[in-house]
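Retro notes
What went well: the complex prediction finally ran end to end.
Inputs used:
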Amino acid sequence: MKSLILRVATRYLAALLLIFSLYLLLRGHNEPGGGFIGGLVGATAFVLHAIACGTAEARAALRVQPQTIAVTGLAVALVAGLVPAFSGDAFLTGEWLFLFAEDGGKGIPLSTPLMFDTGVYLVVLGAILTLVLAMEEEI
Amino acid sequence: METLLSLTIGLLIAAAVYLMLARNVLRFLFGMLLLSNAVNLLIFTAGRLTFGVPSFVPEGAKLPPEDAANALPQALVLTAIVIGFGLFAFALVLVFRAYTSLGTLESAKMRVAEPEEEKA
Amino acid sequence: MRAPRPAAPLTPAVRSGPAPTATPTQRAEETAIATDPKSDRRNGIAGWAPVLLSATLFAWFCTFLPAVAEGEVLLWQLDWVPSLSVSLSFLVDGLSLTFLLLISGIGTLVMLYSDSYLRGDPQYARFALYLTSFMLSMLGLVAADNLIALFVFWELTTITSYLLIGFHNDEADSRRSALQALLVTGTGALAMMAGMILMGVAAGTFEISEIVAQGDVLREHPWYLAIMILILAGAFTKSAQVPFHFWLPNAMAAPTPVSAFLHSATMVKGGVYLLARLHPALSGTEVWLWTLTIAGAATAVFASLQAMRQTDMKQVLAYTTLMALGTLTLFLASGSAYAITAFVVFLVTHSFYKASLFLMAGCVDHGTGTRDLRVLGGLARAMPLTALAAAIAALSMAGLPPFIGFIAKELGYGGSIEAASSPLLVTGAALIANALMFTVAAVVALNPFWRRGGETPSKPHEADWQMLAGPLILAALGLAAGIFPHVLEHYAAAPIAQSLLGDAEKAKELHLWAGVNTPFLLSLATFALGLVLYFARGALRRALESTVGRLPDLDARWDDVIDGLKGFAAWQTRLLQTGKLRRYLVVIFATYAGVMAVTLAMKAAVVVELDFSDLILKQWMVVGLIVTGAAIVTVTRSRLAAIAALGTVGIGVALTFIVYSAPDVAITQLLIETLNVVLVSVALLRMPLLDPAGTHDHRPKDAVLALAVGGVVATLLLCVLAVPMDMRLTQFFEEASYPDAHGRNIVNVILVDFRAIDTFGEITVVVIAALSAYALLRTTGRRDRA
């Protein structure tokens, strides 16, 4: 597809989608969203890019091999599961750290479930891009 | 609505089974897609349907509303959808590769590992 | 390298002929090595390290001797699987220590011997590894104090034995023999494991030392008979009692040091060891007494008659080993002090002389290139030291004074004349077996060296010191033990009596000369009969040929059994694995529909009401979308229509999720649906949606099956909906979601916190699916383009 308008528009749209996917990931614990959905939206951004500008450009925009992203995600999720071991808890127990929390509020919550969800995000993003990009190229 | 959905799921499954029994593996793939949709709906419906009250804890409360939807089947279905996609994509690639190297989409003719004449 | 496809997989590669007289292993498998030009290449570390290891172990075990002789029991324990009460506990008492010393001691000599015997074999490191592993397993077996641990070591010896018998794995005979030994002893071991589990449950513990303390409980237990039969199945197969004996002569396909070590001195005694170890727990009943008596006597007599028929040195020795195993079983039938003492002494005696004779056979084979007794003769001049070892060992085997064999025989007779079962039968069996041993000893160990003549394939030459050390030392030990019997009594007989009978004092004293009594007279009778048989051996052999030779040949039946098994496997594979996708699916779906329909019919207590009154238009539309899409995809011949219809179904499902309060699921479904369309469009448009003529949309049988499955599922769902929902789990998640897990989106909290381990499994699957598809695309893609 060589439409100039599509290509230019897609660039902005993809960037927006990517930011939106991160937003979905971060708010997922309290509102609709989360790693699965965020990852899917993020993947859609790159798929759109690939359709409009070609897979080579999409890969370049991604910088990293999608397989690497997927496997990294798995590792992140695994590490999130192992962190509780330091406080003697079982595998995948949620550990929370509330930064700047004032009385009653929860401040900025950092947690292993969030880390785990980030892993899920990366896995979904990476896995789907692995599939789609390879299929676009090879078939 | 549960009754109607149950019957719909039954129909979806029947269509899926019919397609999976076809000799062309592409139809088998279509059947697989329908089947995974049907099963997702089945799990979802079996967990009871709730109209308009998602399973969220409102701001300032500690519990979700009394009549909130059942969250458990939703979590199951959510992952099942993603896995179903992975399975489908893999199957699709497999079928495509089989087609390019064997030149056929008929499952009965894909006999590289177990050629017909070895059956005796 | 890929194994070639067998042309006719159901016919065995090689069938050995009529086994007892045939010579499957008679051909000297080692001659190839003896003439190998590289044969002076040293084995290096693989040669000496095992010797060092076993010698060290032997020395270590020797340090236990004083304490154990005092009646002490040494115990180590290490929890292994505590939840299944499996522990690595080791116990060293008189019985264990005797075995430990025999295994490590003979092990040292055998390792030393092997280094020279297989010098230059490029596979020697493998051999040494197997042999060492076997030795360690065997040591574990006799020291284990936990039934499960014992079983594990037991199976380890089975596996190492398999590897060692099949060491020459380029020979069909070796492979067949190895597999046979593995299957026979492995099957027995499985039965034994069942028996052990029953025993552990009945006794309430898996620790052997605790089990043997409650023999009365076990003997009274309703499971006693089952336990005994199952455990005997393991012991009898391992120790090759009739009718499970046939694997042992075939196991002679192994290199000679292996035969000496595993299939004579140690492993085959594992079964006998188990009988002795569990003797306090299981013995003392009529059924134990008679089972062991009959099996032992039958094995001893049958084997000694068979030994007379053989012409291959190793085969003769294999059958005499069988005879010894039968005798040992016979001794364990009763619990009399005589029998137990005889058991100990004969056990040690046999290990000495039989290992020595096997190693001697290896020297002869090595030095002359043959083991055929019809050919061998006059070797004493060329191989004086081998001849010496053979002579001493043979005299012990024949039971002549002042060798330990004599004492063992006297004790045996002492036990048999007061046997609880039937003194006449037991004594008769013992007399026949011992007389034949006398004859066989002369035939196998004296004739080759001292009779005149003999043409051997290669010029006889003496073995080197490494190979002579074993036979000489072991033979000498037989003589020394005969002259100083009280050493054996103090360090082995008394402690074992302590283990088995609970009283060291019960061990009979060992004397070379116990006066003129019934055992002595029986000994004299044995010698007389043995001499007569020796001179009449030609006639005897012919007589045996027409009697024993006509007995059903279990070894040949073995091939039939294996063929039958393979045939059955092939038949059921052909039946079940047709390789036709459609047939598999039909079977799966039909089974599912049938089983579910029957279950539903039997439990159809719920009345399903079909109620459509509460529906609004929006809902009808959603369902309409789904049904229409499904219908189109089922009948269409157009790919584009199919893609569009599939998308419609997906959107319909997503709408259902939105309507019924599942926003997260709905978003996921929509996104996946989008990606699906992308993928399918890419791939599908390059493949034709063609069907074989007349197979599309006219498949009434398939339609019936499809509707049946759909109907069953719909009914099932309606039944589920008709009963109240158990919301406990959901309730827990709802209550804990915000206070404990700090999340308001309960679905997300379930995914990343409550059930995170499930999610972890799921994302792993996603990664694997993606990587597999990627690999499939990339690797085959390149090849296709190239």
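What we learned: The longest helix of chain B spans residues 71-102.
What to try next: split runs per interface for comparison.
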